[in-house]
Design goal:
7 helices, seven-stranded antiparallel sheet, Phosphorylase Kinase, domain 1, alpha+beta, 2 domains
């Protein structure tokens, strides 16, 4: 599925991967498509089954952490919606109904290994998001402890920017910052140990949070998926490179080394890259669900 189209409901937002519909004043329906984005742009291809896989993985983690922090999911009978049987069949495995919340305009990123934009920032002056790190760290090297490295949340086509803790506090307030930082690291630490027992290194991940009219904070969007995280096979891990991954870094690397430049549209993906990506996503789902 590249795009969803529910005739009886208003699509209020179409993001890089998810389409959002308004069910009523308090409820939204989120449909996770098979679109995939890298470098804050959406690729022309789809990754078959990706939306279903992301939905199942997120639901697993939402359930695991529901007693730690409330999430936005509402129990809702999809058959009660004013949609056709064909539409139900199309979205049933890739959709959730959620509370309508306001979203904090930051991405809550936790890193335990120095990779991606964090490594690039470190190379400039030894800091990541204003946090001074030890000298001489190499690409993909493990940090002394997980660090909270927030970024802005950009629109499609714009780039997310890493920000300091002070900048994040200016955006969302000190109390919200402290809570989100604490809960993000707490979830990360639990997931890191869970995955390590299964031979997977959780290098870094991104969380998003929202709040209601009473300023209660909720975990939203997606949780610990191969779209929002770097997953490495522990047996293949090594530094000074981008380790073999079970996430969309595989596509980032393909695009990066294809000759693409930031001022161009993203290239189409070859069939083998698409097929391999689906298999990677299926594999990490199997490990996470402990099948």
């Amino acid at each position: 599925m590249h795009n969803s189209n529910l005739k009886n409901y208003k699509k209020i937002h179409s993001g890089k991967v998810r389409d959002i519909y308004e069910i009523d004043n308090n409820t939204l329906l989120i449909v996770t498509t098979d679109r995939i984005s890298v470098f804050d742009k959406v690729l022309p291809n789809i990754i078959p089954e990706k939306g279903i896989i992301l939905n199942e993985i997120s639901n697993f983690w939402f359930k695991r952490y529901k007693n730690l922090i409330p999430n936005h999911i509402i129990d809702y009978d999809i058959n009660s919606l004013e949609i056709s049987k064909d539409e139900i069949k199309e979205i049933a495995q890739r959709s959730i109904t959620v509370k309508k919340l306001k979203t904090f305009p930051i991405e809550a990123i936790v890193r335990f290994y120095l990779s991606g934009s964090g490594y690039n920032e470190y190379l400039k002056d030894g800091y990541v998001c204003g946090i001074k790190l030890p000298k001489g760290l190499r690409q993909s090297e493990k940090l002394p402890e997980p660090i909270f490295t927030p970024s802005t949340k950009a629109n499609v086509g714009d780039h997310d920017l890493n920000i300091t803790h002070d900048s994040c506090i200016n955006i969302i307030g000190k109390n919200n910052f402290e809570f989100i930082k604490k809960i993000s690291i707490e979830i990360f630490n639990d997931a890191f140990l869970y995955l390590k027992e299964r031979g997977i290194i959780l290098s870094d991940t991104k969380f998003e949070f929202g709040f209601d009219s009473k300023d209660n904070i909720f975990l939203i969007d997606e949780v610990l998926t191969p779209d929002s995280s770097r997953f490495w096979l522990e047996k293949d891990y090594k530094i000074d490179c981008s380790p073999k991954s079970l996430d969309k870094q595989y596509i980032r690397d393909y695009v990066k080394f294809s000759g693409w430049t930031d001022d161009q549209d993203l290239p189409s993906l070859p069939d083998d890259i698409i097929r391999n990506t689906t298999e990677k996503y299926k594999y990490i789902r199997k490990i996470i669900q402990n099948d």
